[in-house]
Amino acid sequence: MNILLVSPAYPPTFWSMQHAGRFFHAPSNVPPLGLLTVAAMLPQVWPQRLVDMSVEPLQEEHLAWADAVFVSAMDIQMQSAATVVRRANAAGVPVVAGGPHYTLYHETVQGVDHIVVGEAEAVMPRLVADLQNGCAKPVYKADGFPRLTETPPPRLDLLDIKAYLAMPIQSTRGCPFQCEFCDVLFLNGLKPRHKSLEQILAELDNILSLGWGGMVFFVDDNFIGNKNLAKKFLHGIIAWQQKHGQPFTFITQASINLADDAELLGLMAKAQFKSVFIGIETPAAASLAECSKKQNMGRDLLRSVETIHSFGISVMGGFIIGFDADPPEIFNLQRQFIENAGIAVAMIGLLSAPPHTPLWKRLEKEGRILGLPSGNNTMDENALNFIPKLDKDFLVKGYKDLLREIYTPTASFGRIKKCLKNYKTPDFVAKRPVKMYDVKAMFLLLWTLGISTKGRLAFWSLFFHILFKRLAELPEMLHLAAMVHHCQIVTADFLRSDVTCSK
After folding, report:
1. What is the pLDDT of residue 501?
2. Going by DSSP bridges, is the β-strand pair 166-169/215-218 parallel, antiparallel, or unpaired?
3. What's the CA gap between 459 and 344, in Å, rounded?
4. Beta-sheet pairing, 114-117 with 95-98
5. Which helix H or strand E contains 132, and what residues bound it?
6. 483 vs 20: CA distance, rounded Å
7. Does the pLDDT of residue 27 top 70, yes or no?
8. What pLDDT score was predicted for residue 430?
9. How far apart are CA 68 and CA 93, in angstroms?
10. Residue of 187, 266, 195, 198 lying closest to 221 (CA atoms)
11. In angstroms, rounded to a whole number, what is the distance separating the alpha carbons of residues 48 and 54?
12. CA–CA gap between residue 490 and residue 448 (Å, rounded)
């Protein structure tokens, strides 16, 4: 069978990072790891092609070649995914669909011939056998959560790696925390499951063999969900990095209790983890209690962020507006915290209630659910799929004003300066050979931010401060500036437009 693997397009959001990617001529942030992993579970004698619609359009010739289309999507890709399904239906090509979106909404999805509900490892042998025998069923449901020790390495050979800012890798699935608004518990479970260290190092070998020499994104739900396991992995990664000449820098997602473990932070810094996304959500204690964000409660959040920064790891922060306990002054509280913490990349969103979450169940009992979420809570005022306690118009206006204030050039570049104040770059980073594509990216960034944008004065003020006082942090300053530039553009586009991403 000719298998066409299609990753639907993403709308512009903070996470999409396409404007940062332009400095490296990379149109997309990260490849579709789930789809590439599924590709590795198919018979290797079946010809396979990948179309990542964040990189290239889906052509009619692709569909004409295919005997089956495999689609994997998250909620934010739902509109593009629906278009892919309609086009495959029109071309008479059977569709196999899976991933978080189809797992959550498999009972209402239209046009899909075969749906995989849950994680693919548990059902792919049955699905493949039925496809071969011409008797594939409409729905294949995973029975529980599979072990990851049998998960094959993803088919990265199907990619044009130059099209991406980072290569993906996954060491664990699941998270031990039970935040009320999060659907990870339903999708991936409460107890983190993990690959072996040997699997992880083999995947790093594979990435290196492709000629990659940039960022690698550990896309775990929570990289430190099991701290002892994370330390074991980090020791192995550090040895691997040293053996191969420190080829990669890493980014990942973790919880704020990372700040409590100096040993863990030191290992991450030594392994060259440069950035970590953390769901901070809100500085309002009552709102943290409401959403059961226990790992964030009873701590000095500002000090926690400062501690992580002091190890040379910048914090990308997730923030949410719209909790029942949010006071009317929540916008000012969020702005002050983000500025005082020096969080350059602040991903601020409106609260959404996904199905199967404790939040959805609570609001449904209270008669406050208005419909399904849009899938995009950061650039869509329709993300509020429930009746909030504060007036919706008040929330949306305050949200837009907050974004406008946070992403002015003065505020944006001021936060980078604040972040790097106590930042410490490992000595071996300065000894790494400079690569030509980094030099080209730097000059393009200097031209864009220093010459052709309105915020050039604020940028040059930051640049010369770092150049003369903290030269070792110049690469990280440019990295953060590129991401901030992306956030500034998508924020400005959102604020200018009356059409939301869900329309």
Report:
1. 33
2. parallel
3. 13
4. parallel
5. helix 124-133
6. 5
7. yes
8. 57
9. 6
10. 187
11. 18
12. 16
Distance, in Å, from the CA atom of 424 to the CA atom of 413, rounded to the nearest integer, reads: 18
Q: How far is CA 361 from the centre of its chain?
A: 25
- Does position 503 have pLDDT exceeding 80, yes or no? no
| Residues 6 or more apart in contact with residue 187 via CB below 8 angstroms | 100, 103, 104
Q: Which residues of 31-67 are buried (b: 16+ CB within 10 A; e: fewer)?
A: bbbbbbbbbbbbeeeeebebbbbbbeebeeebbeebe
Whether the model clears a pTM of 0.85, i.e. scores above it, the answer is yes
> Strand 346-350 relative to strand 3-7: parallel, antiparallel, unpaired?
unpaired
Q: Where are the beta strands (DSSP E) in 129-248?
A: 139-141, 166-169, 172-173, 193-194, 215-218
Using alpha carbons, select from 223, 247, 403 the residue that is nearest to residue 331.
Answer: 403
Q: Which amino acid is at 255?
A: S
Q: For 43-90, how does the pLDDT look when each residue is reduced to its tens digit (9 = 90+)? A: 999 999 999 999 999 999 999 999 999 999 999 999 999 999 999 999
Rounded CA-CA distance 85/71 in Å is 8
CA distance 36 to 69: 13
Which residue type occupies 50? L
Would you say residue 41 has pLDDT above 60?
yes
One-character DSSP codes across 180-192:
TT--HHHHH-SSP
